[in-house]
Each structure stands twice: as C-alpha cells, then as structure tokens.
Amino acid sequence: MHPSDLISRREFVAGTASLLAAGAALGAEPQGESHEKSPLAIHGGEKAVKQSFGSRARWGEPERKQLDAMLQQSSLFYWQGPQTKLLIERFQAICPLKYVQTCSSGTAALHIAVAAAGIGPGDEVITSPVTDIGTVIGVLFQQAVPVFADLGEGTYNLDVKDVERRITPKTKAIIAVHLTGNPCDLDALKALADRHKLVLIEDCAQAWGAKSRGRPIGTVGHIACFSLQDSKHITCGDGGVVASNDERFGPLLQKFGDKGGDRRKWGGHTVFATNYRMSEPQAAVAAAQLTRLEAIAEKRSKLGNLLTEKIRDIKGIIPHEVHPEDRAVYWFYMFRMRPEAFRCNRSQFVKALLAEGASVTGGYIGVPLYGEPVFQNHAFFAGRWPVKEMGLTDMDFTKHKCPEAEAILKTGIRVPIYENMTDDYILEVAAAIRKVATYYAV
Ligand SMILES: *Cc1c(COP(=O)(O)O)cnc(C)c1O
Q: Which ranges in 167-249 belong to alpha helices (H)?
C-alpha cells in the first residue's frame, strides 16, 4: 500500500472546506476520489481509531464514605433513614420537586407514577415504542393499555403530531421517554396534555442531568421518573426515584411505593399497591453518586455534541438531533444511515466501523415494544389479557404500526458515549464514520 493512498485522521477532521481549497490550489485529485482511495481497515487499511477509551472508575471515596456512615446506623429501613433523606435532598437540588419517593427501580418509579395518576382498567397511555419495556410494565399492571406513537426521524422521541392523532376519549396520560437523555419536546407535549386534560409523566431513566430549554429534566411534566439501574448515568445497582410538584399526585407517591399505606400512621390503606421500597444501602450509594452527576452530564453532553458537529455534513448520515437550547446527556449516541445513500447495508457498515476500531452497534432494542411476543400474543397475565376479554379495549398489537420507529431500529447505529472518553477519541470515531461512509457512498 502506497502512503499517499492514506488519508490521515487530521485531514478528515480538518473538514471538507479546507481540503477542497487545498485540492483546488494544488490541482490535486477531487476530494471524493482521494477518500475512496483510503483503504478501509476491513480491507487491510490503517485503522481510523487508534486509541481505546479505557476503563471508567464509577465509584470510590464518596461512596465508601457514605456506606461507612450507613454502617453506623441501627436501622437500614428507608422511612426517615438518613441516607434516604440525603438522597432526597441531593435529588431536589438537581430536580426541585416537592414530593420525592425513592424506590427499587425505574420500572417501579413508572408504576408508582401511573398508579398515582389514577390510571386504571381500560385507560389508554400514549408512549414511545422504542424504550426499555419498564416504561409500560406499570401501565399493563394497572390493567391500562399502552398506545404507541411514532417518533421523530432524528430525535428518536415522541412525534407530538402523532401523539395527538392517537388521543381518544380513553386516553389518560402520556409517558414522554427522553430516549438516550435527549429531551422530548416538552413544551408541545405539556400544551397537548393540558388541552386534553392528560397527565404528563416523564421517563427520565436515561436522562439524568438533561435540561429542556434550561429547565432540569423532570420538572415540566406532572410526574418525573428516574432509574438508578447499573447501566444509567448514576447508579446504586438497582433503584429509582419518582417525584412530583402536583398536589393531586405527589402525596400518593409514598403510598404507591410502599404497599398502599401511609408511613406517618398505622394503616391508612386507602389504595392497593405493592412493595417498591429502596433500602438505606442503595440510598447511601445513590446519594454519593449524585455528587458525580454534573461532571458526568456535562462531559457526555460535550462529547455527543462534538460527534454531531463532526459528522453532520456526511452525505447519507442523519446525526442525533438535539434542540440547540437543550442539554442532551447521551446515554448513548445514535446516528442513522439513509439506506439509499450507500452501497452497503447496515450490518456491513457496522462491521467496517468495528474494523476501524470504533466500538459501535447496529440498532437498539430488536423490535419496537409492540413487536415483542408478549404484546403480539396479548399474553400479559397467564397468557391472557383481562381488559381485552372484558371488552374494555379493542387494542390489537398485531396491527399496531409506527413506521418511523421501525425504520429507526433498522437504520440506527449506536455509538457508546462515556464520561471518561476524550475529545480525541470522539474525533477518531467521527473520522472512521466519514471514512466508511465515503467508501460506501453511492
Ligand atoms: C432503564 C429504563 C427503564 C427501567 O428502569 P429499571 O431501573 O431498569 O427498572 C425505564 N425506562 C427507560 C427509558 C430506561 O432506560
């Protein structure tokens, strides 16, 4: 291989304008052609990504200190526990909501929210089909019906127009999933919810530290739900937080998280609920983790935006679309290929990127939630779905369609973003994407 066949990372990163200018000045080959001569790593060429992003220290002294304090306690129960109190205090510092209930998972937080919102048999809840299944587990356990709306081409979040089309007299709530930590269009969703008297629940599981037009994520809707599961920005292994400022729902969060009872007195079982409590050891770790959040959110936001800046001009690539006044915190980054723009399919594109040293994956969840067997078979409760048998819904998930959501899962390529990555690493990943896209361009 001749050295002049290679296009260096620097040249890719320098951008097309200066390359074209240089090319024109020197009478060199047109840029497109010279890119094509850059051999892909998958064909034996040099890798575009030369560094690895290393390992990530996720916990240490702050967590140890908090766990030590916890071990001095005589009780590890959440109610009036010092770790739980500290966690709530620190949570309120980043998300100023009056009523806060810690719980065992993000799924639990969402179930508590749906139950506190008064969602019951046959009620419809509109949400995204591209999310963790935990978004709708609580909906189904309340015997309500998830209705999936389609998504924005590059935001991967609810398309507000399609949400509106799917509102019926049975609709009671919208669950806005801030997928990957990219805020939904909350102003439009809140206006729509208010117009139709719907409860707006925010699924912030992937969005710790995100901001919508400057406002902390979780503060625009009626109820906010967060996950502290191991894969999220901050974690205590498993855990969740549900919070609200709304006097209708806020006071119910504790009850729906703790067997329907009121901890301030014996009994008080005015509602029926399961046990979703979080214990003090989890709260201790979560409270310590919150001290790390701002740095994590800031760094991921910067890295993801940098990647967009470097790939946005590549033909056939749809970058991750974020509103310029929002802070997306990139639980992961996902760009899309326009299939007609390339001579290869996604799996070949991904293979070529992996060979370049970019650690990417095709897609996210395998199919939209309604495509999963348990939905296709309407088999939620021992193979049956009582609300359908009772005639409270005529939902048929085999006929449900969200074309853009399906296309997103078929054409999306996921790039991991971690707070320990450097700008240089992201620049190399961007160069790899440009190199592969240029090679396979039609
Ligand atoms: C992780 C996640 C959940 C569920 O949280 P768990 O803590 O795993 O139960 C719900 N929604 C979204 C968007 C998630 O990413």
A: 186-195
* Ligand 1 neighbourhood includes 203 CB (under 6 angstroms): yes
CA–centroid distance, residue 178 to ligand 1 (Å): 11
Q: In what order do the strands lie in the sheet with 412-415?
A: 317-318, 333-337, 412-415, 361-362
Contact 370, 364 (CB under 8 A): no
Ligand 1 centroid to Cα of residue 240, in Å, is: 9
pTM, 2 dp: 0.92
Q: What's the rounded Cα separation, in Å, for the pair 43 and 85?
A: 57
Determine the distance separating the centroid of ligand 1 and the alpha carbon of 371, expressed in angstroms: 18
Percent of the chain with pLDDT over 90: 88
Question: How many angstroms is it from 66 CA to the middle of ligand 1?
Answer: 25
- DSSP-H helix ranges across 312-422: 346-355, 373-376, 386-389, 403-411
The atom number, within ligand 1, closest to the CA of 229 reads 7
pLDDT digit string, tens, across residues 51-109: 988 788 999 999 999 999 999 999 999 999 999 999 999 999 999 999 999 999 999 99
Quick one: tokens of 83?
């770790």
Give the whole-angstrom CA distance, residue 396 versus residue 419. Answer: 42
CB of 107 closer than 6 angstroms to any ligand 1 atom: yes
User: Which of 229, 234, 278 best tests ligand 1's pocket when mutated (most atoms within 8 Å of CB)?
Assistant: 229
Q: What are the tens digits of pLDDT across the range 247-271?
A: 999 999 999 999 999 998 877 899 9
The answer to whether residues 246 and 222 touch, using CB atoms and an 8 Å cutoff, is: yes
Instruction: Give the list of residues 6+ apart from residue 225 with CB closer than 8 angstroms, or none.
Output: 106, 109, 110, 112, 113, 201, 202, 203, 204, 205, 218, 240, 241, 242
